[in-house]
Specification:
147 residues, single chain, 8-stranded mixed beta sheet, Aminopeptidase, 8 strands, alpha+beta
Length: 147
């Protein structure tokens, strides 16, 4: 199992920041072979959900209150280290993220921009596709909402 922590940007230590950016880069830039601007000045507005296993960051998301990213609350940068995906940590970190949206923002409607190949994964968390497929950073995405 993983230990999950929720932090404001101002509460993140430099080591946590480094681990967060390293994991996001490892998966979104290197593994997915996608050149994009990960550091987008949205981290300062987000709450960060960290999932640690044996003191190593293995899962992460960031969440936003309504209006800070989409009109609805949202979850983004959902990432699990490649060698840790077989343990279900993506589901665990998303459950914690959904709970954090409710606890911190008092919201239940959540919008995500999901990579299309993860549609069934997000449907297992009660997200529904609400629009057409589009390309984001040359990767097929779909808009999804959980009510």
């Amino acid at each position: 199992m993983i230990d999950v922590f929720v932090k404001k940007f101002s509460e993140i230590t430099t080591d946590e920041l480094y681990a967060m950016l390293q994991l996001r880069s490892e998966v979104f830039v290197v593994e997915q072979d996608c050149v994009y601007q990960d550091i987008d000045y949205k981290d300062q507005k987000a709450l960060h959900i960290f999932g640690y296993k044996n003191e190593k960051l293995v899962a992460y998301t960031r969440i936003f209150k309504p209006g800070d990213y989409f009109p609805q609350s949202s979850i983004g940068r959902v990432v699990v280290a490649q060698n840790q995906r077989k343990f279900g940590y993506g589901f665990v970190i998303m459950q914690h993220s959904i709970k954090a949206v409710k606890e911190h923002f008092n919201e239940t409607i959540i919008k995500i921009s999901a990579q299309k190949y993860l549609k069934k994964f997000y449907e297992s968390l009660d997200f529904k596709q609400v629009g057409e497929e589009y390309l984001e950073d040359n990767i097929p995405h779909i808009p999804m909402i959980k009510k």
